[in-house]
Amino acid sequence: MQINSYHRHRKLLGILTLLSILTACEHRDEQKNQPISEQLPISQTKTSTLTFSKVDGKRVENADQEPQNWLAHGRTYSEQRFSPLTQINTKTIDKLGLAWLYNTKTVRGMEATPIVVDGVMYITGSWSKVYALNAKTGEELWTYDPAVPGEWARYACCDVVNRGVAVWQGRVYVASLDGRLIALDGATGLVEWEIDTINKEVPYTITGAPRVINGNVIIGNGGAEYGVRGYITAYDSETGKQKWRFYTVPGDPQKPVEHPELSAAMKTWSTGGTEHKWWELGGGGTAWDSMAYDPKLNLLYVGTGNGSPWTRWVRSPGGGDNLYLSSILALNPDTGRLAWHYQTTPGDNWDYTATQHMILASLEIEGKMREVIMQAPKNGFFYVLDRATGELLSADAYANVTWATGVDLKTGRPIENPTLNYQDQPQAVLPGPGGAHNWYPMAYSPLTRLVYIPVHDLEFLYTRETPFEFKQGAWNTGNDFSKLANIVEELGVDITKTSGNGMLKAWDPVARKAVWTKKHLTVTNGGVLATAGNLVFQGSGDGQFFALKADDGEVLWSKTINTGIIAPPITYQVDGEQYVAVLAGWGGGGAASLFDPNLAHHDYGNDGRLLVFKLGTESDVPLPEKRHPEIPQPPALEGNEQQIAAGKKTYHRNCGVCHGLLVVGSYSIKDLRYSDKSIHDIYPNIVLDGIFAAKGMASFADLLEREDVENIQAYVLSEAWKHYNKQESIKSGAP
Ligand code: CA
User: Fold this and answer.
1) How remote is the CA of residue 725 from the centroid of ligand 1, in Å?
2) Is 351 in the active site?
3) Domain 82-110+439-459+500-627 belongs to what topology?
4) Going by C-beta distance under 8 Å and a sequence separation of 6 or more, which residues neighbour residue 47?
């Protein structure tokens, strides 16, 4: 924490002029501020005249009255990600250029939605860091580093990302990767309160953005691949005091339930008389991303995640739907009581979460206006529900789906494809655990009445792990990734080439079909923004930023960034000028699980930066230099075949989730094929002693012995040599 407070202190020196003109930023922590006020820099020349106005529920409810701002995660409580601004439109778009950029000096994934309040922008970056910027100039106002312990990265399935802050009554709320919820003074970045939302003995992580509803800060967590029990909690925005907690899955049946909804859920779980105890395996159901809110109904909608482990015959051998996994929950935000639920994937067996973005809208369906909630969860079906009652109105495949043949609208249940059950043998299934659509936010335009969905077709070979072996703090999915690696090799699949497809789909939720599709070069691409200028904005994994015509998908403008984009853009206005902002920096869930040669980072690295555009500027985006590295000659291979085989198994159980299947990794997380002798010389120090823990590579001494490390190293080297030899033979022109 020493480094953290030093950093904050240093940044504060830069905004003292700003502080002196503020009336709203009285410091509560005298001791913390004393040394700073003693060091007033005389030469400080910043002349910002920003005011830090307070956001409350009325302002968010009436967000359309102040379209210049982006006050909440999805701009409005309905989370449509639609802006009424029109200065940038189909006629003016060709004049769009770079207004300013801000370097975060990080190389990991960037997923945040910027928040803009009256000319002040708040973003988050890798490692849950917060940056406050002048939205007109990019001037840094303050930064805050929660000093997440680097070793906590081991518990993050999907990179050390963060999806943004919430603002409320002058405060900025951020949730850190290691499970803390922190309230900062919006003007200074000073900590007002901080609480731990997790039990540190269980590997929860937080990557999601908090929401504030009726003065309660709402936050969930992730970790369903690591053996956790999901929950969502509300805290008093003033004090951080816990108001309520909703567990998404039941705990030990011998103990009293924490709240009444768990009694109903309990009946849908069963050990089937076996020794499997879901409450010891965690159960899952983590609410790690999506929320939406209807102020009229006073209902908070929360999406829940997959089971822990993925496989239902391990998790609940006696069968059952396993409530409330992969569900949309409608909760009273004041009490945490459940109004209704809808489970998209009963008895989830495929890591099909329902944590994906949810949008509230009014749709005319069969001549009647319906207040709906819409979701395109991982399982490949687009759902439209009545959001007052949870009644299913429609569910249609928005991508290629093989696990189910459809959804029965009478029962609301999917019709599973029995031939693809992977209990007895591996099965290639669409979609895979990456989903047909993941967290990448969609957008809905009330003008075109279309939902814009970042879609990918990405098959996965589900391969049962037998016997299932639970290890606390390890990757526990019930799938055997070393067996999967063997099959991939036997099939002769070239892991350095991708076989998936990524696209932006414009979906008509009333006609229940796609209206247009824009194919991308890369499988994993960014979130979406729709505007009243008849535009849709989206970035891609190969480092392009696009503006498309919202009604027909024609690409009207694109800018080469050369940094992969997964984050969603936003738009706002300051002093009469409209801006479009997007974070660049590839990573997240796709960072390791998928190798895609078209991703920008292979050639240009992955420097995190916020890019902000406006009309009439001649400036262009400075492009990172090409720096595609060659695999260096690996050190001599010392392991024998037995060691390599053992190492392959151990690698895929413990390392592959981050470093990639068959040791083909990505830029943002170290690709082990590129390690030179200096790294191989200290393998045990890295893997067992944790000397790189601060960078995110924790010690695995709780799971691995020295012999395991030697085996892993032998396997990694054998793969590095394979790729090195191939590279050299291509260079020498050998056939
Ligand atoms: Ca998952």
Assistant:
1) 36
2) yes
3) Lipocalin (2.40.128)
4) 17
